[in-house]
Amino acid sequence: MARQLWLLRHGEAEPHGSAADDERRLTERGEGQSRAAGRALAALEVAFHAVYTSPKVRARDTAKLACEALGGEPIDHEPLRQGFTADDALELLHADERVLVVGHEPDFSQVVYDLTGGRIDMKKGGIAGVRLDGHRGELIVLLRPRELDRLA
Question: Which end of the chain is more exposed for a tag (fewer CB within 10 A), N or C?
């Protein structure tokens, strides 16, 4: 099995300015998006060796809700807070592993671009999957929240 990086953008959160950025919580819709993402990945039988999350509340809560269906506990990973790069992503992956990272834009779209050359629009609560061969990757899936909801 090739290495795979799966990226889950946090669900819809409280508006900017409603709380300190690190403390912004998911809305009810964002909680639903997070649960649907986990159920959809479970329905697709995608199992992860590890789940890493930004320590920001909205991302950590997204990871915890998704893991209800996936099993396991998310691990806080400081680089996911802000400025997460393709090199950071590659450091998390070991041979033949599949890893889920939960975090933020614009980092995730840039990581996908840097690894695959593909430009994507990563929606809140959306998922991208990248298969890696060395340092180059192939975008294997891009799912919006409404598609995840249908799969769930």
Answer: N
